[in-house]
Amino acid sequence: MKGKSFDKYLKSKLKDKEISISYEEVKMHLKIAKAIEDIRLKAGLTQAQLAKKAKVGQPMIARPERGDQERVPTLSSINKVLSALGYEADLTIRKAA
What we know:
It is built from five helices and no strands.
């Protein structure tokens, strides 16, 4: 990859459909995790406090926040966490470019 920028490298790899799909999936999970972490911190809650309030295990809060893609929370768990924070998810579906 000598002399090649990361953006160019990524662009070339994303031409592969499987890599592109995986990349978008990880990006979506990280975006959700970051949003929940931001809301949690704004509320002044620890991971353990939020987990208790949402009636989920603390690791369910910690794993996504640290970017763990091996055990991604279900939509049901994400909904419980958001609800405990006083939020709800709004799903937008649009045609891919």
